[in-house]
Amino acid sequence: MSQRVSSRSSRTSRLRTRAAFMAAGLGATAVLGAGVAVAADTSAAAAPAATTASAVQAQAAAQARAAKAAQAAAAAKAKAKAVAAAKKAAAAAKKAAAAKKAVSWVDPVKKYALSAKFAQAGGMWQSTHSGQDFAVPSGTNVMATHGGTVVKAGGNGAGDGPAYGNAIVIKHGNGTYSQYAHLSRIDVSVGQVVKTGQHIARSGNTGNSSGPHLHFEIRKTPNYGSAIDPVAFLRAKGLKV
Ligand SMILES: [Zn+2]
């Protein structure tokens, strides 16, 4: 439609040019006549152009409406996209939180008082204290401090000696093991895979123990003699021990 208009207007200007050219070639008297003729011709050409103009106006309005609708559609699409992105971000955050929880560590018992410390000297131990004691009543829920596989479980310190009483050793990743001793009851068996915080035993007073508590070690191997400071270890994992 707009193309037609421009072709018409260019035709009009062509006519004007031609009229001017003709007028230049004729006398001054002829100019008037030619001018009138041209004017008539021009107005004749302009009339449909005026009709076209209103049609163009209508078209423009329709185009504006269409543009507005398209804008609204685009806005709706953008909003939907934003909602989808927010949903995706929330799902990712949830997944990250779950992953963080999966790699995190927990205290082996919930309510406790720290008693004998790691490397503490005393008559109770062969050399120095190989773990951290958590003073808790017998029968307290003992949990896997981190996910892993049970590699030792049983009496006689699960092979590490009678001083430990009933004990469990769990293998975690990166050459890290956790050990739980003086247990009154063992609820896992060797080869069992446990999750972080999973119940594994009940605390007690078995073995060389001066009272109910959980003896807890972090070891570099499954065996006695490879322990490191468990409190420092757990604190490095973000626990408040
Ligand atoms: Zn101890």
From TrEMBL:
Gene3D superfamilies, per the entry: Glucose Permease (Domain IIA) (2.70.70.10)
Signal peptide: 1-39
Tree of life domain: Bacteria
Keywords carried by this UniProt record: Signal
Transmembrane segments: none
Domain called M23ase beta-sheet core: residue spans: 128-230
GO MF entries: metalloendopeptidase activity
Pfam family membership, one: Peptidase_M23
Name under which the protein is recorded: M23 family metallopeptidase
Lineage: Bacteria, Bacillati, Actinomycetota, Actinomycetes, Kitasatosporales
